[in-house]
């Protein structure tokens, strides 16, 4: 267990909440955090405990960032499943995305694959 990872993740999230970066930079930092600051179950508890000590406004800002990261991850999974030809109903069940969200991703994917 890395005792620094939960605290470092909190620091990064606090910075992101205050900096209000553009989506491209948020995505870059998000990928870094997801890759290098993976938390085990114990670290997740430390992370949640640290968030619970924050003020309500700061908690909401941080949870909004975390939620957007989770949404992006689910969408990436859905796109990969679509590329593999998995049925949209299965993708909805597996990811928890709505049918409309998966269909929109499917449209985007088909537009990307059209010759120009």
What's the arrangement of secondary structure elements?
Layout: H1 5-19, H2 23-36, H3 41-52, H4 56-83, H5 88-95, H6 99-112
Characterization of the model:
This protein has 116 residues and is mostly helical. Helices cover 78% and strands 0% of the residues. The chain has six helices and no strands. It has helices spanning 5-19, 23-36, 41-52, 56-83, 88-95, 99-112. The radius of gyration is 17 Å and the shape is elongated.
- Please report the total strand number as a whole number: 0
Helical residue percent?
over 70%
Low-confidence stretches: none
Our Rg estimate from Cα atoms comes to 17 Å
The largest β sheet comes out as: none
General shape: elongated
Overall pLDDT level: 88
Helix/strand-derived category reads: mainly alpha
Report the portion of residues in β strands.
under 5%
N-to-C order of helices and strands: HHHHHH
- First CA to last CA: what distance? 49 Å
Oligomer class: single chain
- Please report the number of helical segments: 6
């Amino acid at each position: 267990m890395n005792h620094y990872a939960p605290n470092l993740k909190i620091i990064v999230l606090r910075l992101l909440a205050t900096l209000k970066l553009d989506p491209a930079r948020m995505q870059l930092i998000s990928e870094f955090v997801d890759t290098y600051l993976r938390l085990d179950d114990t670290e997740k508890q430390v992370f949640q405990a640290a968030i619970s000590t924050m003020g309500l406004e700061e908690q909401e800002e941080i949870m909004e960032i975390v939620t957007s990261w989770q949404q992006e991850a689910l969408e990436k999974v859905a796109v990969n499943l679509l590329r593999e030809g998995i049925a949209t109903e299965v993708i909805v069940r597996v990811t928890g995305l709505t049918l409309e969200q998966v269909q929109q991703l499917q449209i985007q994917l088909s537009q990307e694959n059209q010759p120009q």
